[in-house]
């Protein structure tokens, strides 16, 4: 595989070029290194390359990987969060990109207050309306924003996350309306509530340059940085202590978020 430093340099050049096309400062865009199914050595590689945020899809994978990894990076949960894993997730992650309901906001607020945690959160919005994707509908966003601001003092709402539909590379421009819709929705929420929501988590390995042109501040990149994911054996679930409190069971939905 090509040297990681060269790969990262190329990705950063692509981000800088995308910013230049729309008059943005490249310093306003951060890469989240998505290390899903890779080992702890990839976290070190990302850190030594200058990346400061690690993104994981699953609570149980981060639970075994984080203690084996280099200290220093922020850990962000970018995958679906089940209610029965909130307590464990709060012990691992500083920021959550996939809050998709008021009930999950309430669950996180209750446990965060109990644990003395102050997590940063993003609301995940299904702007495409695809049934295969998680996230609240755009119509649900205003009520969720109001609830986060007024009923969740332990949480800091920083912005919004979305996934565009998949398009082959030659049709990547077709992702643009979905990223633009999230940015415009964010702008509307700022005006409506008189608050700042500076973070837009959007764009993955195949479409990140378009997302940057449309205002992404966090791009979630895995395959373009680290190559195809290795196959790994499932890790033991980490439900002890929190399981059963939500009435939900089973494994987390294994989404591809990079």
- What coarse outline follows from CA principal-axis ratios? globular
**Quick one: biggest sheet?**
8 strands, parallel
Kindly state the number of beta strands: 8
Mean of residue pLDDT? 91
Number of helices: 9
- Please identify, by name, the CATH architecture: Alpha-Beta Barrel
The level-1 CATH class = Alpha Beta
CATH topology tier name: TIM Barrel
Q: Segments where pLDDT lies below 50 for 5+ residues?
A: 233-257
- Radius of gyration (Å): 18 Å
Walk me through this protein's architecture.
- With 258 residues, the chain is of the alpha/beta class.
- It has a single domain, classed as Alanine racemase (TIM Barrel, Alpha-Beta Barrel).
- The chain contains 9 helices and 8 strands.
- Helix 5 runs parallel beside helix 6 (141-151).
- The longest helix has 19 residues, at 4-22.
- The chain is globular and about 50 Å long.
Q: Which helices and strands occur, and which strands form pairs?
A:
Blueprint: H1 4-22, E1 30-34, H2 40-48, E2 53-56, H3 59-65, E3 74-77, H4 86-92, E4 95-99, H5 102-115, E5 120-124, H6 141-151, E6 156-161, H7 176-193, E7 199-201, H8 208-213, E8 218-221, H9 223-226
Parallel strand pairs: 1-2, 1-8, 2-3, 3-4, 4-5, 5-6, 6-7
Characteristic key phrases:
TIM Barrel, 9 helices, 258 residues, alpha/beta, globular, eight-stranded parallel sheet, disordered C terminus
Question: How would you sum up this structure in a few lines?
Answer:
About 35% of the residues lie in helices and about 15% in strands. The protein is built from nine helices and eight strands.
């Amino acid at each position: 595989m090509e040297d990681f430093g060269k790969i990262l340099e190329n990705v950063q050049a692509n981000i800088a070029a995308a910013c230049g096309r729309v008059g943005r400062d490249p310093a306003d865009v951060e890469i989240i290194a998505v290390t899903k199914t890779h080992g702890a050595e990839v976290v070190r590689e990302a850190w030594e390359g200058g990346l400061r945020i690690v993104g994981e899809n699953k609570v149980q994978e981060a639970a075994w990987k984080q203690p084996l990894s280099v200290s220093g990076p922020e850990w962000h949960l970018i995958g679906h969060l089940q209610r029965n894993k909130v307590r464990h997730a709060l012990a691992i992650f500083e920021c959550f990109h996939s809050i998709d309901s008021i009930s999950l906001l309430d669950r996180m607020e209750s446990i965060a207050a109990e644990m003395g945690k102050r997590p940063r959160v993003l609301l995940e919005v299904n702007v495409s309306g695809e049934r295969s994707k998680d996230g609240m509908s755009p119509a649900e966003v205003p009520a969720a924003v109001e609830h986060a601001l007024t009923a969740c003092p332990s949480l800091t709402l920083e912005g919004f996350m979305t996934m565009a539909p998949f398009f082959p590379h030659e049709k990547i421009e077709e992702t643009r309306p979905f990223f633009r819709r999230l940015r415009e929705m964010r702008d509307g929420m700022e005006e409506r509530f008189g608050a700042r929501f500076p973070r837009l988590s959007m764009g993955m390995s195949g479409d990140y340059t378009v997302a940057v042109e449309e205002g992404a501040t966090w791009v979630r990149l895995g395959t373009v940085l680290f190559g195809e994911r290795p196959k790994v054996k499932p890790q033991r679930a980490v439900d002890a202590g929190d399981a059963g409190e939500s009435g939900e069971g089973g494994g987390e939905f294994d989404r591809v978020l990079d």
